[in-house]
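Human: I would love a firmer grasp of how sequence relates to backbone shape in proteins. Take your time, and here it is.
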Amino acid sequence: MRKKGRSSVQNGILLASPESLVLFKGLLLIVMTSLFLLLFNTVLFYFIPLSEFFVPYFIFGFSLTSILAGSIYIGKRVEKKGWLKGGIIGFLYVFILFILGVSFFPGLGFGANLFTKLFIGFAFGTLGGILGINS
């Protein structure tokens, strides 16, 4: 016999749903992949004489690669709406980076550049979610 009420509450304690745990793991995967790729970027620029002009492009590309990897992970583990959940994770990751940037560098502000990055983060997250659901 099925009990009535919310399935995520057991004995008065709110339980984390498996889906929210998957989203958290996906976000954690994005952060860990970004850190690994940034370490790779550091080693690359230390040993290979490349111009510092390329650093922002490498970092942005590595961030998009990380978003794609994390949203593919999410898409493979959720049952439906992988595109939306991947997009939200991509958006959230870029937003968290913005909040951290503003915290450490108060001169940063809102602008069209932020909205472009949020959109691109959402788009790559959506793409990763679609690829994850369909693979």
Summary: The beta strands are 9-10, 13-14. Confidence is low (pLDDT under 50) at residues 1-8. The chain has one domain: 16-46+53-133. The chain has four helices and two strands.
